[in-house]
Description:
Elements: E1 6-8, E2 11-17, H1 20-32, E3 40-46, H2 57-60, H3 67-73, E4 77-81
Parallel strand pairs: 2-3, 3-4
Antiparallel strand pairs: 1-2
Helix pairs in contact: 1-3
Amino acid sequence: MSKPAADVGGHAVVILAGPKEDRRRFMVHAYDAGMTTGDYVFYTVDMLPDEKLIDAEYVWKGNDGRDAEARKAFEAVFHVSHSSFTVYS
């Protein structure tokens, strides 16, 4: 596995920005590698969130039979959504 993005005193911060499926796959691999127990902090970022992101399950749910592991892995994630401003006149 590659070196973490930031290493602070034996702990690491990992920022994931990309398609939902890629973030989920990464987090399931992190779970398998034992990286979701507290030494690593994960942030996922959505620049243009989908309305479905209001549903927490949407972030971790998939169709590969590993939803239980993915849900557990995403307990170590801070999820950030940034939406565009809409100006009404």
